[in-house]
From TrEMBL:
CDD domains: MFS_MFSD11. It is found in: Membrane. The chain crosses the membrane at residues 49-65, 77-94, 100-117, 138-158, 170-190, 226-247, 267-287, 299-318, 338-355, 376-395, 401-423. Keywords: Glycoprotein, Membrane, Transmembrane, Transmembrane helix. The keyword tRNA-binding does not apply. It comes from the Eukaryota. This is UNC93-like protein MFSD11. It comes from Anopheles minimus. One of its GO terms (cellular component) is membrane. Its main location: membrane. It is a multi-pass membrane protein. Belongs to the unc-93 family.
Length: 436
C-alpha cells in the first residue's frame, strides 16, 4: 500500500511538473512577451503584471470555496478541472485581446485554487507522519523541474532577439500548451490513495458537507497557530511573485547587461529551477531524518539567509527602474553582471525550496485532519500577497520591492520558527499518549 501511495506521489509530481513547465515559463516571460505584442499590435493594451495580479486575486478569493467543492467532488477531479483552466489561459495568447487576457486570468485563478488545494489534500492523504516530509520534498523537486525545460526553450528561441516576433511567440505557445495537456493526462491517471499503515490514526474530514467545510476553514484561519503561519505564507507569496515575474523581466529590461539580456530571462528561470530542485531533492531524501532530529526551523532559517543574500546582491546589480521596461540606467555594479544575476536566481530558488517544502511538511503533518482547509488557507494568504506584489510592482522601483521582501522575510522566518517550537514541545506528549 505504501508503494501505491509513492506511485501516486510520483504521478502527482509528474503532472504538476508538465503543467507548470508551461505556466511558470509563461509567467516568467509574460511581461516581455506582451511588450513585444504591443509593438506589433498597438491596439493591444494588456499588461503582464496586471494579468498576474488578477490571477492571484481570483485565486485568493476562490480558496474560500474550494474546501466545499473538494468535499463534493474530491481532489482528483478538482485537480483535473484546474489543469484545464491552465491550458485555456495559455491558448488565449494566440488571440491578443485585453478582455480575453483578463477574463482567462480570472478563470485561471479559480482553477488554480482547485488544483492547488486538491494537490495539498491528495498529498496529505498519500502520506503518513513519517513520510510527509519525504513526499513533500519529492513533489517539490519534481514540480520545480518545470523551471528547466520551458525556460531552456525560451533561452534558445529568444537567442539574439531584442523583439519577440509573432512566429516565435506562436511556436513557444504551441509547445507550452502541448506539454500542459500531457500533464493533464497524467493527473487523470491518479488512483485513490491507499489506507496508511504504521502511523498514528487520524480521521480525515472526507465526508464533511460543503457548508461545514467552509466554516471549518474560517475557524482554522482564526487559530493563533495559523495566524502566525499566515505571515510566513504571505512572504512566500511575495517572493514567488518577485522571482517568477518581476526579477526575470528586470534582467531582460536591463540593456547594460548586453544584447543577450532577453535570453537571460529564460536562463534565469533555469537557475531558479536548479536551486528549487536541489532543495527539493535534499529535503525529500533527508526530510524525515532532519525533521525528526532537528525540526523544520533550521531549514527555514537557512532559506531566509539565502534570500537575504540574494536581495542584497540584486540591489547592487540591477538598476532601480528595471521592472518598468527597457532602461539604460546603471547599477552600483558597473556594468551589471549576468553571472551575479544568475547566481541570485539560484539563491532565490534554493531559498524558496527551503520555505515551501517545510510549509508543505507543516501543513500535511500538523493539520492532517483538515488538509483541504489548511492548504486552502495557505494558498489564500500566499495568493493575496502575490496579487498585491504584482500590483505594487507596476509602481514601486526595484529597491522598494527588495526592502518589502527583506522585512517580510525576517518576520515570516520568525513566525514559522515560533510555531515549529510549539509543535516540538507537543510531540513528546502526543507520543506518550499514543503509547498508552
Amino acid at each position: 500500500m505504501m508503494e501505491r501511495n509513492l506511485v501516486n506521489v510520483l504521478l502527482l509530481g509528474g503532472g504538476f511538473m508538465l503543467i507548470f513547465t508551461s505556466f511558470q515559463t509563461l509567467g516568467n516571460i509574460e511581461q516581455t512577451i506582451i511588450d513585444s505584442i504591443k509593438k506589433d499590435l498597438p491596439s493591444f493594451t494588456g499588461d503582464g503584471y496586471t494579468s498576474l495580479a488578477i490571477i492571484y486575486a481570483a485565486l485568493s478569493l476562490s480558496n474560500w470555496v474550494t474546501p466545499s467543492i473538494l468535499s463534493a467532488i474530491g481532489p482528483r477531479l478538482a485537480m483535473a478541472i484546474g489543469a484545464i483552466t491552465y491550458c485555456l489561459f495559455m491558448a488565449s495568447f494566440f488571440v491578443p485581446h485585453v478582455v480575453l487576457l483578463y477574463g482567462c486570468s480570472v478563470v485561471l485563478g479559480a482553477g488554480a485554487a482547485l488544483i492547488w488545494t486538491g494537490q495539498g489534500m491528495y498529498l496529505s492523504q498519500c502520506s503518513t507522519g513519517d513520510t510527509i516530509s519525504r513526499n513533500s520534498g519529492i513533489f517539490w523537486a519534481m514540480l520545480q523541474m518545470s523551471m528547466f525545460f520551458g525556460n531552456l526553450l525560451v533561452f534558445f528561441t529568444f537567442q539574439g532577439k531584442t523583439h519577440i516576433d509573432e512566429t516565435t511567440r506562436s511556436i513557444v505557445f504551441a509547445v507550452l500548451i502541448a506539454v500542459a495537456i500531457v500533464g493533464l493526462v497524467l493527473l487523470t491517471c491518479l488512483r485513490r490513495p491507499s489506507a496508511n499503515v504504521g502511523d498514528q490514526p487520524v480521521e480525515l474530514n472526507t465526508d464533511v458537507r460543503p457548508r461545514q467545510a467552509f466554516l471549518n476553514a474560517i475557524r482554522l484561519f482564526q487559530t493563533p497557530r495559523m495566524i502566525l503561519l499566515s505571515i510566513t505564507f504571505v512572504y512566500t507569496g511575495l517572493s514567488l511573485s518577485f522571482f517568477s515575474g518581476v526579477y526575470g523581466s528586470s534582467i531582460g529590461f536591463t540593456n547594460a547587461i548586453g544584447t543577450s539580456a532577453k535570453q537571460y530571462v529564460g536562463l534565469n528561470g533555469v537557475f531558479i529551477g536548479v536551486g528549487e530542485v536541489l532543495g527539493g531533492v535534499a529535503f525529500g531524501l533527508l526530510g524525515t531524518r532532519t525533521t525528526t532530529r532537528w525540526g523544520r526551523d533550521p531549514i527555514v532559517i537557512a532559506g531566509g539567509v539565502l534570500h537575504m543574500v540574494a536581495y542584497f546582491l540584486i540591489y547592487l546589480n540591477l538598476p532601480n527602474g528595471a521592472p518598468f521596461g527597457n532602461t539604460d540606467a546603471m547599477s552600483y555594479i558597473q556594468p551589471p553582471s549576468a553571472i551575479i544575476a544568475m547566481g541570485c536566481s539560484f539563491l532565490l530558488g534554493l531559498g524558496d525550496a527551503c520555505f515551501n517544502t517545510q510549509c508543505y511538511s507543516m501543513l500535511g503533518g500538523v493539520f492532517k485532519s483538515q488538509p483541504a482547509e489548511a492548504f486552502s488557507i495557505f494558498k489564500f494568504t500566499q495568493s493575496v500577497a502575490a496579487a498585491a506584489s504584482f500590483v505594487y510592482s507596476s509602481y514601486c522601483g526595484l529597491h522598494v520591492q527588495l526592502v518589502i521582501l527583506v522585512v517580510l522575510g525576517i518576520l515570516g522566518t520568525i513566525t514559522f520558527c515560533v510555531v515549529e517550537f510549539a509543535v516540538k514541545r507537543e510531540r513528546p506528549t502526543l507520543e506518550r499518549d499514543y503509547e498508552k
